[in-house]
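We modelled the chain as a single entity of 388 amino acids. Its sequence is:
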Amino acid sequence: MWAPASSPTILAAFGLVGLVLAWQAGLQLHRLWWRPRRLEKALRARGLRGSRYRFLTGDLAEEGRRRKEAWARPLPLRCHDIAPRVEPFLHGAVGVGAAHGKPRITWFGPTPEVHVADPELARVVLSNKFGHFEKVSFPELSKLIPQGLSAHEGEKWAKHRRILNPVFQLEKLKLMLPVFSACCEELISRWMGSIGSDGSYEVDCWPEFKSLTGDVISRTAFGSSYLEGRRIFELQGELFERVIKSIQKMFIPGYMYLPTENNRKMHQMNKEIESILRGMIGKRMQAMKEGESTKDDLLGILLESNTRHMEVNGQSNQGLTIKDIMEECKLFYFAGADTTSVLLTWTMLLLSMHPEWQDRAREEILGLFGKNKPDYDGLSRLKIVSIL
């Protein structure tokens, strides 16, 4: 038979809940207010200047506002002063200090960022011989943003770097040249087929090059699992856009656990990405156990290097876990896709502004290869193209 709990028991339970809530509130208040204010005071005491801390979001709201204003106005065609457009907030906040070589403070949420403009001081920071400059981590983003090599430090970074090194060896990259060539040929053929009767065709390079880099990374990273790799590329692109749009809210305690439509969608996409990767990695590992030779794509080389590392050290826990390998695969996409497509788009823009360089590059390529497909040895002799 059920009996109601006594008043002292109920009071004790409520008291315990109250203590836990007060403790959590104190932790969040320390993280979001007391600690940032204390750090700001310490930095200013050392002579550093910059923006003041704004509760919860720091400079994120102001940064978004300035970027929206800058992007609303078209950049003059032959203008090379791109910093005010690409990073208007940093250009305004850091530019004054950079002119005098002085560090400046900005805020990424409750985390202060010190922007170093003096080359000698930057060299000291980047060398990081004594481990004083730790990489900043954001727990709110760690489940959605790849946590591969770039997020690690110390011995963990060194282990990941040793295992990943063979993936980027020159001889391995040479084997991927036919894939690069095939993807580029498909793109050019599609463009050629779109040329109108007047012999011209207007191309929006940015989405075209985003698609190209996605194809290249998917095929070089996962080989025959290209379609699954392409799906990962599409999901990560959409996931990153959603993260950027909601980044100001992520510093609100517990926000990422709220069942909002955007949060549910982000977690669903991340879950699908990891499910696809786990399946591909599992199939490759099973094939290796059955004696099949590893493939020359990035995943195959990584698994082979990881296996060799464990054999040399004699312990299975000395290698990368499946989760580690998944994060490194996600980082291949995250680090390689936008950076490469932006570089290609910017190069095309500059070439369109300077047709004489198009002529010089075309003459050099045709003189060296004629109508033959480019090979690695020939590419290394392209001086003008290398400059571009």
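As a brief sanity check on the tokenised model: The chain has 17 helices and three strands. The mean pLDDT is 84.
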